[in-house]
Amino acid sequence: MKDGPPHVAMLATPGMGHLIPLAELAKRLAARHGATATLLTFASTASATQRAFLASLPPCVSNETLPPVDLSDLPHDALIETLMSEECARSLPALSNILAEMRRTTRLMAFVTDPFGIDTFDIARDAGMVGRRCLFFPGSLHALTLMLHLPELVVSVPGEFRDLAEPVRLPGCVPIPGPDVISPLQDRSSPAYSLMVHLAERFLEADAILVNSFDAAEPEVAAVLRQPKPGRPPVYHIGPLILTSSDNITSHASDTAPQPPRAACLEWLDRQPARSVIFVSFGSGGTLPAEQMRELALGLELSGQHFLWVVRSPSDDGSLSGNYYDSESKKDPFAYLPEGFVERTKDVGLLLPSWAPQIEVLVHEATGGFLTHCGWNSTLESLVHGVPMVAWPLYAEQRLNAVMLSEGVGAAIRLPEMKEKETIAVAVRELMAGEGKGAAVRAKVAELKKAAAEGLREGGAATTALDEVVKNWVGEN
Ligand code: UDP
């Protein structure tokens, strides 16, 4: 047995949405179990944002970037999912060497990967991680359930999900309308579809699935997943694991849209009445088509509410995930706003190009609502800080999250499919001040805030789940 603390190897495929919660998991393992961890990342995402984030982590969490691999043969319009899994597949030899070295020099206790890295399981087995290969699922229990049932849905669902007349019904889940099933599953002929089915099949090889959610947010499905099921790995609800500060993930300023000093938006919030501001942001990569950006601007103005909006220029091709690998606007995003909008709303609104210190904004007492793309990290951050949501999902699993939040637990008001200024204004006003649905959503979110904190305390559900995972790792060692 080697000296030193137990060590965990964690593979984070591209995207801050994978890296951030894995880093938080590493910090919890260090604080509670005295473990150290290496976050293994890919060269394609070694952006300034990612580098700054990794550099900010405590010494117990180190980083190793896998050597770059050539992806130039992939079609220029290859989907994000394809890029991620190809980069992973081509990095397997390097990863194998790294794990072998880690095993030689540390007390390697476990291997954890996010879903897109699951093809590394064979290598992890060869590195001696039998019984200790874990899937970290950075999404909701609803999304996990969908993936776990995917191999059978592929057979039972004829045609495309989006054409289904009836919603998809899964154990413990809110019925999921076909168009709200995750976006890579919406086209059976797409490589992303086959990839998701492949990943889902391999989920079953995990020795444990650690999922970044908590029971109160998705009570019925949580109860189902807590029950052991033959043939399915045990599922541990270890969330919510979220950033504690946005300090280290501030995007670097772009040339075309210089950012104000980041404290400026917090100072602006200091001057707004309590719970009066709706924060508007579409995650690290979400972009709106130009005409929807205009409707949003006019809807916010019409709502009469104060707002803080992270404005990003529309992507050239009209895609919703145009900036996934790089959150900066390439053009001046303000140029796309309706004429006179900035001047007319200057007393009630603040616009930020590209990026905001989201955690500090959500914590601020002036923030009373969050118009969000329903990325899972943003969702958890909103719940942890007790901020009710207006749901405007864009891509990936965001529509599914919107269903679960609005139709399930009741923590959000979802915008209708046709997003026009009037419908946006009505939803924003209802969330911030409405006495009907708005009041119910605000009360529910306050309840969930307490439940989330409860779970992470000593003896809380998330803490106990992680203790159990580590106990199993040590037992296998
Ligand atoms: N984020 C931020 N400022 C921004 C946009 C995003 O700090 O202007 C952070 C946010 O707090 C969250 C993450 O980036 O931790 C976005 O993750 P999420 O899963 O919500 O969405 P994704 O970016 O993966 O679509």
TrEMBL record:
Belongs to the UDP-glycosyltransferase family. The keyword Glycosyltransferase applies. This is Glycosyltransferase. One of its GO terms (molecular function) is UDP-glucosyltransferase activity. It holds the Pfam family UDPGT. It comes from Setaria italica. The gene is LOC101764556. The keyword Glycosyltransferase applies. Its EC number is 2.4.1.-. SUPFAM superfamilies: UDP-Glycosyltransferase/glycogen phosphorylase (SSF53756). Keywords: Glycosyltransferase, Transferase.
